[in-house]
Amino acid sequence: MTTKAYTKDYPRPQFVREHWTNLNGEWSFRFDDGNVGESQNWQETFEETHKITVPFTYETKASGIGEERFHPHVWYSKSVSIPKDAEGRRVILHFQAVDYIAKVWVNGSMVGRHQGGYAAFSFDITPYLVFGADNIITVKAEDGDSCTQPRGKQRWTKDNFECFYVQTTGIWQTVWLEYVEEQRLDSVKITPDIDRNAVRFDYKVHGAAGTAGELRLEAIVTLKGKPVKRVSLAADRPSQSIEVDLVHEANGPWKKSLWSPRHPNLYDVEFVLYRGDKVVDRVHSYFGMRKISIENGKVLLNNSPIYQRLILDQGYWTDSHLTPPSEEALIEDIDNMLAMGYNGVRKHMKIEDARFLYWCDVKGLLVWSEMAATFEFNDDAVDNFTKEWLEIVQQQYNHPSIITWVPFNESWGVSAILRDKKQQKFTEGIYYLTKSIDPYRPVITNDGWEHTVSDILTLHDYVQTGDEFLKRYAGNKEAIVSNETTCNHWKYAFAEGYGYKGQPIMITEFGGIAFQSDKGWGYGEQVTTDEAFLARFEGLTKAIKSVDYISGYCYTQLADVQQEINGLLTEAREPKFPLEKIRAINLG
């Protein structure tokens, strides 16, 4: 089951238009270790030294290069034919992700610059094109080993170490063109309200200023092919909102139309922009009617408590690293999580491909969306982190599967947060800025320990046995939340000056069990048999579920990642034992 306008490999499934061109595939490529490309005008006369398969980075085998050594400046070039019949429309060049700074030229002319390795961005390249001819798109990507840029699990040293892996440099998600009119929808922010049976659409319309009623916007809402609502308004301002009542008795009881893991119902919505009687833009989207709230120390989904069984997923693949090898690979990961009895995923230190979130929406997998960390604290780090995080929250806002924002993890980038007032205030600032865009989802600062203001108290603990876990946590809630004792063996639950206010408590990292191997590591002693693995896994999981004040957990992790071999699957996504055995423990 998919949404009405689903198109395989379409890079932005929540905002679908008909006319687009995928630019993935072979590009010309060149390293620029001396950073001489701009001064030598490579954007005008580009001489390739390699071919590269976009969107895979040069560090990966899938790119066709497979060079893991760090190169801070890399260039791409591609000849793209722009059809003559596109003249009169605007041509938008989209990048789903480029790490870390992207500079873009078309036919030798600079069209734009973007900073941030995980957020999508785009440029209107129409003024630089020749229609009915080939046009040269050139991209320079600048990356660095700086720990003031959000880098997540990307190493900043020559070799991998601990839980940090080969870096990602340059284009690592889809590049594509879109053909649109001058007057068009730029975005629609979709906010469900299940208590009032309504949904709000916040529109941004490009070219609406000064049109004096010339433009009209229509929204057509359907559910499983059946009409629900059709609303229309004059699009006479660049930004405006409309609330739509979704009571529709013909489609059965209201609760059957809500989105949840068990019933991931999605409404299709078609946005049509008219100029007079002429259609100038048509965008297909979808939304889920669901509510996340917190009451009496519990997380509620649609006003009912939900026990979250999450799995941590870092989203790395053997031959393509951070880039999904295919849409089917994303679907396979989600299906494996569901098959093992998990109802959610904590996407760790990575902003995932929008198609992953689409399939979580469709299949009903809860998502914690987590920002890639910096690893230093100074003014540059604050600036870099804040700008990119706010871009990401806005870009991911409409996905019903996302139920929690996680901007900080384990004090990474804020290593002195226990006592440092500046670092504490930074996390507070990010919390409130996130809430200013999205007041409806919980925000966690800082996942694992040393929380400041946080809607959920999340704790990490890699204790090896269930008995050890119970000794530390059973009956010890008050000591842990009051900082009388550490929440594991070395970190306090709250930073100094902050305290417990009745938040839900979850164990959001545990386990990390690895089989005996000299090729990598896991947490605790490695095991030698399936029986030993499953016994330890079951003991820990049952212990957590038996503690009455804990309302969910997140197991580390889905799949092995390079030197970290503590996944339930190998890095090639081969199960280490039958998935139903994990499912039985999770659901038992």
Automatic annotation (TrEMBL):
Signal peptide: none annotated. Keywords: Glycosidase, Hydrolase. Transmembrane segments: none annotated. GO terms for biological process: carbohydrate metabolic process. Pfam families: Glyco_hydro_2 (PF00703), Glyco_hydro_2_C (PF02836), Glyco_hydro_2_N (PF02837). The keyword Hydrolase applies. Residues 293-518 form the Glycoside hydrolase family 2 catalytic domain. InterPro entries: Beta-gal/glucu_dom_sf, Galactose-bd-like_sf, GH, GH2_Domain-Containing, Glyco_hydro_2_cat, Glyco_hydro_2_N, Ig-like_fold, Ig-like_GH2. One of its GO terms (molecular function) is hydrolase activity, hydrolyzing O-glycosyl compounds. Residues 184-290 form the Glycoside hydrolase family 2 immunoglobulin-like beta-sandwich domain. Residues 22-140 form the Glycosyl hydrolases family 2 sugar binding domain. Belongs to the glycosyl hydrolase 2 family. This is Glycoside hydrolase family 2. It comes from Paenibacillus arenilitoris.
